[in-house]
Amino acid sequence: MERRMTRRTLLGAAAATGAALALGPRLRWFEPALATGPAEPAGVRFVPSACEMCTARCPIIVRVRDGVVEKIEGNPKEGATGGAICARGNAAVSLLYDPDRLKYPLIRTGERGSGEFRRATWDEAYAYIGERLTKIKAEHGPEALAVARRPNPNDPFLLTFAQAFGTPNVFTHESTCPQSRNVALETTFGTLMFHDYANCDYLVLFGRNHFETLTVPQAQGVIKAQARGARVIYLDPRFTPTAAQATKHYAIRPGTDLAFALAMIHVIVREKLYDPAFVATYAAGFDELEPFIAPYTPAWAAEQTGIPAAEIVQVARDLALNKPRSAVEYGWFTASFASDFQLRRAIAILNTLLGNLEVPGGTFFTKGLAKYAKPLGSWKRPTPPKPGKPRADGAGVPGRYPLAPVKDGIIHHLPEIIMTGQPYPVKAFLAYRFDPVASVPDQQRTIAAFKQLDLLVTMDVYLTDTALYSDVVLPECSFLERTDPAFEVSSLVPKIRLRQQIVPPMHDTRPAWRVFKELAGAAGIGDSFGYRDIDEVLTAQLAPLGLTPDDLKKAGQWAPPDAKPIYLRQQNRQAPLPLATKSKKIDVYSEHLHEFGFPPLPVYTAPPQPLENRLYFVQGKSAVHTNIATQNVPWLHELRATNEVWLHPTAAAARGIKDGDLVAVRSDRAEQRARAKVTEFIRPETVFVYHGWGRLSPGLSRVTGKGVSGNRLLPARTDPISGSALLRDTFVEVLKV
Ligand SMILES: Nc1nc2c(c(=O)[nH]1)N[C@H]1C(S)=C(S)[C@@H](COP(=O)(O)OP(=O)(O)OC[C@H]3O[C@@H](n4cnc5c(=O)[nH]c(N)nc54)[C@H](O)[C@@H]3O)O[C@H]1N2
Ligand SMILES: Nc1nc2c(c(=O)[nH]1)N[C@H]1C(S)=C(S)[C@@H](COP(=O)(O)OP(=O)(O)OC[C@H]3O[C@@H](n4cnc5c(=O)[nH]c(N)nc54)[C@H](O)[C@@H]3O)O[C@H]1N2
Ligand code: SF4
Ligand SMILES: [Mo]
Question: What is the pLDDT of residues 683-703, one digit of tens each?
């Protein structure tokens, strides 16, 4: 079941870490604490698993002594992480033992939002949900149920539940995260693209804050590149840890990144610095690009961005000089300004001009397990009927949001649908590993809508802000107390990884595979869950690969033997690429966008300008917290207990604000209070807060009511092309209280 590590293997891990540390002090965030103690005493186990403190799901080794989890470390065998984990991964121990965790099912007894619940048994909770779902289905049809989750290894259970119930209204969080990027990439290449950070020589980052807003494997890739001498150009209105590590930081004016990108295209085209053979072989519409890009000069971009024209020219030339081992990163959180979709299109065009696809140090198509071995299998389940109605949010629906992905939807439209009953009634909502009240803009509207529902169910590990308004709260086992299905981690080389149970559940909590099976039984759709336990699910998954659940439990992860990175164009620069656009080419000029009435080339729209006294309201994530998930996790709370309002000294002085003063941040929607942090690390027309505070639920006892919630201040605006939320194009006033 588990892997016993001897002192010798531990020393091996220490040596590997030592090698990584030799890269320099910037590694300090990733340094795994090493197991201590002279010898491995009896009663100590080391079990491989996968972290769930964020969705990078790094491989970990958990040290357990006499049934108590003592320490979490990175799995030293993982090359991509260098055997390291981050502070959040380390702190999972304190989540496991946090007295604030959900300990048993809850059924609401008071008004929604009152926080009055009673302890319920699982059977009571299932019966409550099952009865209401059956009634809602009979009265309004199955599409009256919406479900949402942050994608995770338990997706097959939630998706099977939704499909068997018959609803098309399945959401992810994506419209508040990378949707404009994803749609731009799918429009241009027909699929997503990824970066070969470690082998890159010149990398341009539009606010991708690798050394603060982390995933360990990506950050390690950038560190490896920099250790070889790679240059990193970083644009952010704020001076961040990535700015500190970058070759060059430009404090760009918020929302003007597209101007910088267009001017770089201008220089590369005008000076003929692109890869002509690549463009001729793979690109469609280059002829249209030339006249289109002519007006977007560096001088014009300098006015927009506040960055000198000569600097823009230099970055463009350096990018081209280093091609194909150079890239402009597509970014991750891209739910920001209305120009974001076209920014990601412009970046796609830049990478095309550099000819960096499928060569080391460039960009690549993901190579799934099926390319090397066989895809994972599944337990046997009946083919679900096709939902009778289209999605309520219009994602993928002609005339509404035809390009927004059907599999993700537009979660920030759900409140409107519930409130108006248009295009049809949605009466029940299930939130799994997702907290829309905290995460989705226009919190007031989300709450008002949730209060109108006939049924709201949350499944989480904490009493979240969404749970606070729920009828039933289902406690999932924490990730250290459960086994999930194996999941694929596909990068240059595919792998499968397993999260396995380390210790028995401490409370009356259950794993997802069990909850959805039992809930399906109560809702009369149990036929789709014909497995007995998670081992049966794992057996079915692994059978095509000739592996058993025990194989994976021992090692924690598996890669096809001798799997080497595949770069499709490494040997043959004309090799076919799996471009899934209609033209089968890279759509520099997009007929597809044109057909839907959207600009086929990345036309610039300037960001809205702040009225007098107002400031751009910008948020970002902290190195020691994950989005809205960890503010209450004890060890992480100790590291950062609240957020502050970052103001430039000139903006502060103009408002009579001193460092540490209590200030009010006011938008058209609401007012929030926190302490001012007066700092030169931010542009004067911009105010910044870390995302994740201003929480409502008393169940998050350490943080309730502390700091600023962005989503209380923001309206829910939508990019008409991708369906992405626009979370950075709002202005706020800041006043001394
Ligand atoms: N204003 C504003 N809004 C934003 C952002 C922003 O910067 N500003 N960022 C956006 C981004 S990038 C994203 S990705 C979204 C994220 O939005 P969410 O997906 O809502 O946020 P997460 O922090 O990932 O965590 C979701 C929930 O998962 C729960 N959870 C953690 N582990 C487990 C588990 O093992 N089981 C269960 N059942 N639950 C678990 C946590 O307790 C938390 O309630 O928010 C977006 N919203
Ligand atoms: N520690 C930690 N790591 C995380 C997460 C976390 O919450 N904590 N969340 C994970 C998730 S879900 C995501 S989506 C990724 C997000 O990864 P990123 O996209 O890197 O993260 P953000 O923190 O949302 O934003 C990054 C930076 O954008 C800057 N910015 C704001 N406006 C502009 C602008 O107009 N132009 C430019 N160029 N920059 C601007 C902000 O100042 C901020 O520093 O991180 C992932 N990793
Ligand atoms: S990046 Fe940190 S929190 Fe995320 S999975 Fe890896 S160790 Fe865990
Ligand atoms: Mo995200």
Answer: 999 999 999 999 999 999 999
